[in-house]
Amino acid sequence: xxxxxxxxxxxxxxxxxxxRVLNEANKKRSLGRTIRKRQxxxxxxxxxxxxxxxxxxTGKFEGKRSRGxxxxxxxxxxxxWLGPGKVSDILGAVKDRDLxxxxxxxxxKQGT
Length: 112
Prior knowledge:
The chain is mainly α. Helices cover 63% and strands 0% of the residues. It has seven helices and no strands. The protein is elongated and about 55 Å long.
């Protein structure tokens, strides 16, 4: 944002929101989408491999749950990002590499 403000010659004392600066520069925030895309590609890699990481990601290991609030799981976050569907549908789509790439590309284009 600092760089965009400098390019557009907006002084730091001007009370313009970051959204207005982005609209003036015709830009969108893309960091969140990039992170989700990289998480999804890594998840596909891990799920196709089927080793210990697969067990940890799907939550199929034994042990005692710690106290406090549940942590957000990667699978739940990606399920909401990739669109309507269950986690089991996502796990099935991961096995087909071309289908998985198409799902990631469509979600990234939509900007959700």
